[in-house]
Amino acid sequence: MYHRLEEKIHEAEFLMDDAARRSQVGTPGALAERDAQVFRAGLHLNRLNNEFEDFLFGRIDLLRGQDGRRGPDGAFTSVDPAEDAVGEGGEAAIGETLHIGRLGVLDADYAPLVIDWRAPAAAPFYRATPVDPGRVVRRRVIRSKGRKVLGVEDDLLRPELSVTLDGDSLPVVGDGALMAALGRARSHTMRDIVASIQAEQDLVIRAPAGGVTEVTGGPGTGKTAVALHRAAYLLYQDRRRYAGGILVVSPTPLLVSYTEGVLPSLGEEGQVAIRALGSLAEDAAGASADVYDEPPVARVKGSLRMVKVLRRAARGALEAPVPAVRQGRGAESGDDLRLFDDEPAGAAPAGPAVPASLRVVAFGRTLVLEEAELRRIRNAALGGTAPVNLLRPRARRLLLDALWAQAAAGRSFPDPELAAEERRAFDEDVTTEDSFTCFLDAWWPALTPRAVLAAMSDERRLGRWARRVLNPREVRLVARSLRRLDERGRGPLSVHDVALLDELDTVLGPQPRARVRQVDPQDQLTGLDEVTTYADRTAGRGRRDRKAEERTDYAHVIVDEAQDLTPMQWRMVGRRGSNATWTVVGDPAQSSWSDPEEAQQARDEALGRRTRRSFELTVNYRNPSEVAEVASKVLALAMPGTRPPVAVRSTGLVPRFAVAGPDLGASVRAEAERLLDEVDGTVGVVVPMGQRQRARGWLKGLGDRVVALGSLEAKGLEYDATLVVSPAAVADESPAGLRVLYVALTRATQRLTVLSAEADLPDADGVPDLLRD
Ligand SMILES: Nc1ncnc2c1ncn2[C@@H]1O[C@H](COP(=O)(O)OP(=O)(O)OP(=O)(O)O)[C@@H](O)[C@H]1O
């Protein structure tokens, strides 16, 4: 197989060289052809080079099949053995052997050397069980590095038979691949599970593409792994359809960087975009992974009530902020505004000055529109629900109408043609005047989502826009949290701000005069940024341009940790999959969102009426049973009656309960050091959100095997050993605190230490109150 792969690499290299030579010809046609060739060869080369490690990982030895026909991948199609495949005394001979790898490889005569793991013929490799083995007699998982085989692990599925292979009896080696895979030390990146996908996971990965596939399962059941393998499977099944792109939505940037290596290792790149919720909106380049809203703020920002507030804000932001001296006067001071009078005036950024009246000279006369008239015009222009930025032309026309009404007052135009001519001349006269164009720019500026968000940091204005939707306390919380932004909205955004920005983007519509360039779908799909083409260079387009033009509508959307999306985030994700098929994976018991019903409503809206099929994953592959048992105590408090998944292995290592001394930092450091000594791989130290900066300091100098995480950051990740600090404080952080604690306690693949502080009320053995029976 490696010999054949080398041949393929030489072919790809030859094509690249050949394409490079063609650039000497210089005609546009030749260059375009060259581009296409470079692109194809580059893609191919990239894949082959990527896949050389551990390329072939599986083998199945099968009995002869019933029909004797071969499918498109060259393998025999029948699932059941031929009637005479097994003799009366249980003797049988292997009729067919298939090798399974990350990509399919054909030999020079187009016969299959290696079968792609996603091909139908590879399904028995994953699905066969001793209860229902089909034709599979032996399943072998091969571990290799480069060309060196490190080990093989066999599962014998028909132990009752005496089987021969090429005349010799069939050897069986090792204890099975799954246990070998689960026992290995973890690094900071997730590995694919392609060699040991289990039957219940395989059903999800190969489920039909249409509609919505919903997957639930407790911690460690492989939901994230399955979701990523499904992306690769869908591309294999119908590459043309999914050329529209697959979006994988992940809750945190940490989980994105943890998982993003999996797809390339499965031979897929480019077509799949893995994005954190905080970087989905186009304008979220500044979304900072470090900014978290306090739970009460997050709860308001994530709620569907914000839709109304944002719609009002988008229209209201056109009005100048009310200067401090005028507050409490006139129609704009509603009762609820007085509640904010204790706020220092001018704490929020001041908006640009807007002239109170419009004054132009046209047809030799000075025409003036006063404040009240201007307000009437603005309100008329804003009627309806059209995107605000698209209403500027309407507002401009209404201004001209009002000016014309003044200019034409007392005059009559009996000839309609002459009247129209006169009006055209008038409009031209006015609109070429600087005073008019400058006024229009200040009075109806092109609004950006960020500028509107910044305007919402003014408590009085937000109070007006949120009237009867948010209570004064909620208004205050939201406004204060937005003071991180300057008047144009620049500054650090929280993940919840990003969903608001995205909603505003829809409400405002495109910026006038913004240059919208058509996107070449190929650019987004290949991921081969290193192959620059003639077309790229002539258009002067860089990597950054492409990022900014990221697609906003995908063919398939995969939502990981779906239980955590706020209603506003569901709306944001929903907009990216309005015509998509979906895979949604999650675990309600791990939800850090406090209003599940509202989130369910938003989720139903995003998924629409598509048909749904549901799967449940039931086996915990991450935690040893000793760790799972401790976590299940919190599950019983967080979601009484929920059954935890069954842990497949046990290590005999009981979790350690320690009590912190007077210096919490020193205790954390000592416990982390202890775990570093005990495991070869990674150690995760999970602390309450408010302590995460300090915790980084406590662990300084311990090396990069150990990381400090806030409780909300631990989502989806795993470590060989986990230290959970102050469980009661984690549980008290928010209404969903117990579920967040459950997440923290289920991150360990080998060892768990729980470090209690005084508030945890540890007993004589150091077991905190929350974890006692
Ligand atoms: N079939 C398998 N073979 C080998 N390892 C597996 C298998 N299934 C899952 N795992 C491993 O189990 C761990 C948990 O998987 P994953 O993170 O996908 O679970 P999850 O359900 O998303 O968990 P959580 O809900 O806690 O985020 C990972 O290390 C994954 O590689």
UniProtKB/TrEMBL annotation:
Pfam families listed in its UniProt record: UvrD-helicase, UvrD_C_2
Binding site residues for ATP: G217, G218, P219, G220, T221, G222, K223, T224
Keyword field: ATP-binding, Helicase, Hydrolase, Nucleotide-binding
Region of interest (Disordered), residue spans: 530-550
The keyword Aminoacyl-tRNA synthetase appears for this protein: no
Superkingdom as given in the UniProt entry: Bacteria
Record bears the keyword Hydrolase: yes
Domain UvrD-like helicase ATP-binding: 196-624
Record-linked InterPro entries: DNA_helicase_UvrD/REP (IPR000212), P-loop_NTPase (IPR027417), UvrD-like_ATP-bd (IPR014016), UvrD-like_helicase_C (IPR027785)
Protein name: AAA family ATPase
